[in-house]
Structure to design on (740 residues):
């Protein structure tokens, strides 16, 4: 065992750090033009779509360098490397794997250059966790598909340019996973209507999306007709290493410890309370577990062994941490914790935002099914 | 970056698995006694496992605690009662805090299997601290050591004592003491009350313990016990998952039901987590001693509570069959209860994590 990176990899780390010290001013010193310039600079370095093939404009970045890049960016509290999280996380990889050459030239550069943002049309009113049962209908009519149906909980739909949309093209298959087709849809298509939904934090990031005779050209189909489920699975499996999330949560834990140092409970310093100390230590231990789980999985990748369902382990750990850390902070702050206008409202706000992370991309119970069925070999539901 | 085992370590693991299957199966451990131990100890000494962490110049294999972890995971999986942990701690103490003369005298004998140590540090039953060592020693020892692991399997014991210069470990011949077996819940972890009656103790038998030394020994103990817990917890998960695939109720294998399936999945998440924490702690013993206390405490704290619940749910998910003496899963529940407090329970270790983390 060792935790050393090679000299070449360390040189890459130094390069990233030097870039950050030159190009990432403190949060309160960033000019209005900062984000645009930042995106251009990281793009020029080849760090957007870093792992993608050079042929489509990526950098062929290997697994170790991907981890280093993510870790350093998270340590520095850097903004994202592109404006389209979903475009970079799964739409782009999906197009690289299943798209035609024409689709690659048409879509990939705009994702890398942060010119477009994407949203993901998977969940429907009656089909969330049971994704393969979707009912939004796409009928082939001449040189296009005519789409009718409804999506919901579509994060980013109110401001996205494009949607990766799961539709059903065949309602008569024996297996529900067959007959699904994936389409790439401009949000401006006539017949596409977005109705934002307010969430419990008061934000309007997700929406209902209605399709009424919306026409999508055939050349916007990703993969073969009826093979949409394979496209989806590969997109969801395109799981990133959790190293950036660990760094981000370690930072949050340090803030939480500072809150403990500054807080009183029952008239005494909160940091003397055995239950408070234990709770903080449990968070710290869980974050460390995520870190070392991640390094074990990274080692497997470095040895050329593909990851499978073990990524669900860190998703579950992260889900519980996201909920519990904010919840603990709000409780510790007592009467102050429930207010949204105080200086410490950061914790109150984030305690209302955890479903973004915890429910999006598969609920904890779905992750448990994945572990139970794919790793432990238990019978499917 | 290589947070995984080498081919050699995987070969060592396979060797231990074969040994457990052939020589120390569950049937053997149910009737394990001093004679069984003598016979098997000779074999594992020849295989080099007893002196794994002893430098080659003292007749050992010159390997590290990461290698020892591989052995302890597998002996833990089989609930093997061989006193590997006690002897690993004796080695670690002699190597860190013993004199050259003590190292020359004792380490070769441990490595070749001619000396076997029982190990007992504290007298207060639930206190991890130098003040919890209360047995007094001068040029002789008179008194009782309340809980010495493996004393009745051993040729010698290494026990915590208070001297006029502070806490120390003392090496005592088995013939000089009176060991009375304790009726312990987990019979794969035998322990004894050891009585000392005017037992002579010469200077060369004392290993002085600074605060840092004691912290190191206790952390090593936590690492060793956690390594055994990883293997044992995986055994419970395998046993219970297999049962859940075969046991039919309401027309389906019970593993199809989420009340069962999700609990098993959560066991997997817990085991993965304390396993990763353990591997890092084991690496720290030899390669990052400054991080050892924190790493060992994280691993032991997490494992202590998680394995305790895994033991309980392993029995519970089996239903009544799990409650029977004949069925093996109950043996693991007993191991979980033993392991939970040894070298510090979760309250102790989480508090230490908080302190070391700046609270």
């Amino acid at each position: 065992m060792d935790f050393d990176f090679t000299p070449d990899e360390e040189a890459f780390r130094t390069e990233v750090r030097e870039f950050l010290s030159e190009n990432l001013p403190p949060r309160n010193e960033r000019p209005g033009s900062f984000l645009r310039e930042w995106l251009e600079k990281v793009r020029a370095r080849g760090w957007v779509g870093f792992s993608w093939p050079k042929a489509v404009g990526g950098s062929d970045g290997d697994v170790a360098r991907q981890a280093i890049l993510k870790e350093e960016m998270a340590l520095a509290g850097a903004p994202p490397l592109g404006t389209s999280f979903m475009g970079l996380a799964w739409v782009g990889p999906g197009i690289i794997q299943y798209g035609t050459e024409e689709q690659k030239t048409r879509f990939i550069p705009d994702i890398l250059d942060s010119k477009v943002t994407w949203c993901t049309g998977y969940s429907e009113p009656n089909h969330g966790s049971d994704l393969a049962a979707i009912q939004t209908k796409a009928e082939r009519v001449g040189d296009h598909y005519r789409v009718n149906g409804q999506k919901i909980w579509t994060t980013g739909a109110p401001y996205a340019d494009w949607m990766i949309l799961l539709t059903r093209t065949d309602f008569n298959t024996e297996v529900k996973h067959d007959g699904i087709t994936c389409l790439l849809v401009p949000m401006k298509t006539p017949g596409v209507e977005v109705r934002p939904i307010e969430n419990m934090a008061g934000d309007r990031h997700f929406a209902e999306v209605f399709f009424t005779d919306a026409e999508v050209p055939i050349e916007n189909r990703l993969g073969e007709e009826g093979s949409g489920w394979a496209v989806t699975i590969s997109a969801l499996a395109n799981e990133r290493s959790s190293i950036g999330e660990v760094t981000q949560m370690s930072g949050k834990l340090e803030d939480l410890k500072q809150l403990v140092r500054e807080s009183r409970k029952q008239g005494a310093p909160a940091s003397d309370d055995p239950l408070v100390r234990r709770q903080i230590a449990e968070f710290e231990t869980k974050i460390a577990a995520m870190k070392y789980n991640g390094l074990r999985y990274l080692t497997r990748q470095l040895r050329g062994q593909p990851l499978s369902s073990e990524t669900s382990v860190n998703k579950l750990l992260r889900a519980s941490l996201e909920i519990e850390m904010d919840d603990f902070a709000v409780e510790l702050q007592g009467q102050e914790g429930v207010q949204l206008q105080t200086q410490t409202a950061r914790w109150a706000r984030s305690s209302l935002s955890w479903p973004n992370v915890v429910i999006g991309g598969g609920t904890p119970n779905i992750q448990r099914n994945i572990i139970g069925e794919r790793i432990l070999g238990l019978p499917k539901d | 970056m290589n947070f995984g085992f080498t081919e050699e370590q995987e070969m060592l693991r396979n060797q231990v698995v074969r040994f457990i299957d052939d020589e120390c199966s569950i049937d053997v451990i149910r009737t394990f006694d001093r004679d069984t131990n003598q016979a098997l100890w000779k074999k594992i000494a020849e295989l080099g496992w007893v002196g794994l962490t002893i430098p080659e110049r003292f007749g050992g294999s010159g390997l590290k605690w990461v290698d020892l972890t591989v052995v302890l995971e597998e002996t833990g999986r089989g609930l093997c009662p061989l006193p590997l942990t006690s002897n690993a701690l004796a080695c670690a103490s002699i190597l860190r805090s013993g004199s050259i003369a003590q190292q020359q005298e004792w380490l070769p004998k441990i490595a070749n299997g001619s000396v076997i140590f029982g190990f007992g540090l504290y007298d207060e039953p639930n206190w991890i601290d130098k003040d919890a060592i209360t047995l007094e020693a001068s040029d002789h020892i008179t008194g009782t050591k309340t809980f010495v692991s493996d004393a009745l399997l051993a040729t010698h014991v290494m026990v915590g004592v208070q001297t006029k210069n502070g806490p120390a470990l003392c090496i005592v011949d088995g013939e000089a003491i009176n060991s009375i077996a304790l009726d312990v819940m987990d019979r794969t972890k035998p322990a004894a009350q050891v009585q000392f009656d005017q037992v002579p103790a010469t200077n060369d038998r004392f290993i002085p313990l600074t605060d840092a030394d004691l912290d190191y020994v206790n952390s090593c103990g936590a690492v060793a016990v956690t390594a055994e817990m990883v293997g044992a917890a995986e055994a419970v998960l395998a046993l219970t998952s297999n049962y859940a695939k075969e046991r039919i109720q309401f027309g389906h294998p019970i593993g199809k039901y989420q009340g069962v399936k999700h609990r098993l999945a959560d066991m997997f998440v817990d085991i993965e987590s304390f396993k990763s924490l353990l591997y890092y702690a084991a690496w720290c013993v030899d390669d990052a001693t400054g991080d050892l206390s924190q790493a060992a405490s994280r691993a032991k704290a997490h494992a202590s509570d998680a394995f305790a619940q895994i033991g309980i749910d392993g029995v519970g998910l089996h239903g009544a069959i799990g409650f029977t003496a004949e069925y093996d899963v109950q043996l693991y529940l007993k191991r979980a209860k033993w392991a939970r407090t040894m070298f510090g329970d979760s309250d102790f270790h989480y508090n230490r994590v908080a302190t070391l983390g700046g609270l």
